[in-house]
Design goal:
alpha+beta; 1273 residues; 28 helices; globular; 6-stranded antiparallel beta sheet; 55 strands; 8-stranded mixed beta sheet
Amino acid sequence: MNTNELDSFPFHALLPKRETTAASFMSKYPNYDGRGIKIAILDSGVDPGAAGMQVTTDGKPKVIDMIDASGSGDVDTSTVVEVDSDGYITGLTGRKLKIPSEWKNPSGKFHIGVKNVYELFSKFTQSHLSKEYMEKEFIPSHKPLLANAVKALNTFNESEANKKNDDLEIAERVDQILKKEELQAQVELLKKYDSSNNDLGPTYDCIVFHDGKMWQACIDTSERGDLSSATLLTNYRDCFRFGTLSDRDQFNYALNIYQEGNLLEIVGQISKHGTHVASIAAANFPDDPERNGVAPGAQIVSITVGDKRLVTMETGSAIIRAFIKVIESGCDLINMSYGEMGHWVEGRIYDLLTEMVNQYGVIYVSSAGNEGPALSTVGGLHSMHSDSIISVGAYVTPEMMIAEYSMRDKIPGTAYTWTSRGPAFHGSLGVSICGPGGAITSVPTWALQKSVLMNGTSMSSPNVCGCIGLLLSAMKQKNISYTPFSIRTAIENTALKTSDYDPYAHGHGLIQVEKAYEHLVTFHKPELIERDIHFHVTTSLPSSSNTLGIYLRDAAQVLKPSIHSITVTPQLFNEKNQPQSKKLDFEMNFHLVVQGGTSWVQCPQFLNLNFDKRIFTVKIDPSSLKAGTVNNAMIFAYDVKCAEKGPVFHVPITVIKPIEVQDNRFSFKETTAPARFKRTFLNVPDNASLCRIKVRNTHQTESGAFILHCSQLRPQISFRENELQKYFSIQPNSNVKFSFPVNALHTLEVCFGKWWSSLGELDTEVEISFDYVQLVNRSNPITMIASEGITRPTESKIQPLGTRDIWPEGKIIYELVLSYTLKLAKSSECSINFPMLSNCLYESFFESQLWMLFDSNKQHIASGDAYPSKYYKKLEKGEYKIMLQIRHESTSALDKLNESPIQILHKVKEPLSPTIYTTNYAAISCQEGRKVGNSISLQPNIVTPLFVSVPATSSVLKAAPVKTINPGSYFKGCFNFVNKDETRTDDKGLFGVQLFVDHDLSAVVKTNGINKSESSEKEEKDFLDMKITMLNSSKISKENREKLLTEIEKDELLAIDPRFLSAKLNILLGDLEVDKEKDFKQTVESGEEVKNTVFVSEKFQKILDLSDEILKSVDFNSLMNGLASVKLDSKKVLYSSKEMKSLEKQKSFTIDALVVKGCTLCTIAHKMKQKSEDISQLLTQINDIYIKLYSINKEMEKDSKIIRFLERHALINEHYGRFAKLITKSNEDDTIDPVPNVDAKLKQAFDGLKWPHLVKHLDRSYHVRFPKSYRMF
């Protein structure tokens, strides 16, 4: 083959610039390549070490600032230390940090903090490094130990198999049992750590100091305190330098220092997305210019708005902080390839965005969204008053199909299937412009890839942003003034309307740089005064006001002609700083032209406008429009002085005339082709609640990839709440079926077609039917998530935020932090909901809501924001703290939320299905024969009575995810009705179900078919019990306790009563703990060990004497015989209730005394062992106690009282496997010790077992699990 005949690779299409004429523009004007322009990338972070992110075309630094606006990279460095005599400081990890001699620090003070490195990494990097750690460091040490432990256990079992244990004495049997338990415990522990793979990552010390000129900071990535190997950095914007955590992770980061050294901000990248976006907009490859971004001369300001705590989700606080930074940095452009859906057309974020654009001249370019292909699917910001935002749709060209997607064949250029469509629900076009929506370009170095393919409006937005950067570069160099509105007018009026032009997908068309440049140059004359004036156009409908266009969608709106008021309000750019003469001199006359709807739209021909709003009316007559179609028209306003510059403003009009469905059925046939969609609009019949759709591929041999997107719009509710979106393949001569709930009398769009890259044509059939399944005469939604009900805050605090959160002109932003307590008696998968603000982000009145959940050790466990359904977390039993932050500039607004509750939502452990009956009588009497079961036959237009029976308490408790179900809690779920051959396609359900709890279910138990309260039978306290209660009270003074003790001891009978002796023993133990605490405190304060051996020995002897006195009061053999008899007495005829209670008391006193005695002997033996004294006699006594406890309770590990002794028994016998297993279990059940103590005991066990890798494993995550303070917002 002649290789010279091969086509050259289309490198230009990897990052498209020809289609937008950006490439030809730069060929003509090479210096207008973005130089002099700052583009703020509000995203997941930009890697300054990525390919193409080093310098601009004129040699300047490419990335000139890096900020993490989310707060997830913040480190509290408010702790201040000084260097010791050896030149070290001690970090918060406890490591000794050697200060390099070359560091200059006149004050001698160092700010220190800690950071878990996994809080910075992307999911990819974290997974990669965790796997590497396990494979290279952990597993090589762990696997051989596990193999040896299994072998030792098997050998023991084989040797024991041939022995006759029945002939052994109990002491020998117990000894054999202990040996086996030790080997089993070692195997279990090693298997547990082998399977858990719970690597929380290392924690690094952070150091901040002032060198006399500026703040400096570094991170001890060595984990050894070797600061000479650390990268010393200052604020990135001052040095343009960054560090790399390690060669293994290739993770580049920058640092910023705030609040006089008390706050360190570590800036990384939480995903590939931000770097890819920045590379499309402005990457520069000096040696390979074909790979350049659209504006290679532009500089980048990287602002991370995605929060690692929320995976990559943006928050309102991060966006507002980003806006502040954009203004401070003097950025010309913003690219925002983030966004969520919205419910209504106003919100705090939009208000500040509008101020930033209108007052500070920042051009805001944003991705329209990837929620198409149905109409009205643009993101939340674009659903607001969007004249401040350039919203970008995504387009794919034939060259991109060949170069980026390696398609077998190419088709004409088209909008991507998924690109969001307008109109916005307030009537604006929704999409301003479109651009190439895919690229293969640079990603962060930690991705270990040079470049990747990504597609989405996230990619089309930076392409358009780069195009605008070229225009701004030209305007600045030519000294041509512009505003965000003159730029927007230029690109919209010159955009290319492609052969497949669709205003809802393409906006005004595909951006064309050359024509937009010519427009700006030609029409910048001073007499064309609208450069500094933009026009806010609103419409008033019969049912709403202040919309941005005319949008008629439901059948009731198009039954007859309608009149609409249009208000045009001129607004002056940066009005505060403009002379009043601009308002006085302003006058324009417009020619109004209808395009696309001359037969059904009527409007005035002319409009005179001064600096005040003007109103004119428009008549819409939809009678001539075809049913089932969408119809678009536009009223363009041309300046009569200069009509050739194009429309100065426009009024979009969309009218949908739905089909009236006959007999509840509708069908159509469609020959499908790539990216060609059949849109059908149906008026959902009255009372219909369910829609069923069957799609059939009638081709006999070919399959295809399809999309079905159905949607309805309801006022102030996001389209996502009323949609079905399914991507699927259909095999030849086959069909698929879907069903989903619908809202009657609202227009349903059924959008069906082939995926854009699914080549070829296929004949299909689509059948649509509606069902009238509804609940008649129901009072409430019948609403099975379980809710623990409402939790009120335990603490609230309002305070001003720092320098990063002051809006220009001194507007201080405040935070309200609310604290809540969550107690779980058993594990649960739950979510946290703040009902007042949930499901609102861009449209929220407040800037943001962000909650963080911490365990009792202050470890950060989970976070969530405005969308609670995204953040379910499996929590173990225990006590948790929830901290919720809400921000606003008004303290009075925050004050109103001081007592705001949160709701804890738990997933049920198993389905809780109420039983359904056909009659009321059957439901009450629980007649098995009248149950509906899982199926029922419903006849058309016939009401079928159904009666729902409340589930049995036992079923509720079994399904409940929490141990205690308090009054006010409720279960929430749904009923669905589907045909037998169908599967539900969503989890929303047709009818909600709620089961409210009006009493404490957990206080009710079922015994022999009769429910009894646990508290119904209480033992009457005698006189001694009352005195003992007083003795044990924490409120009694030491003096009064001594008097009471003396008084009881005077009574010879009471003085030897086991109850009194047990109480006296507990008091002695308590005093001993107090003394030990005092000694510990003295040791810490003096630095010397306090030796009080004699005093402690006296206390020990008292404890042993009291324990023996209690044991003597109970005949052990009689007790054992009695317990054995009770066990055999299944019918309870040998012992009365009183005798059984007495026996249980003796058992309890005996266990208490044996445990206390055993623990004391173990402590004494441990002290003797430390002095190398012989402990063989003590060991005999200790093991004798173990045997007695074993005789009483063969399942000692389940007894929380005995387990305290078992731990000490295992340790003194050097059974470290048993010891580790026991302390792990006691920690899981009910922690006796503070958890850090448990950690220390585990390390003691692993040291004893000579498992150093597990000690290192625990140390690696210690500061993650036991941080010194709560994580910062």
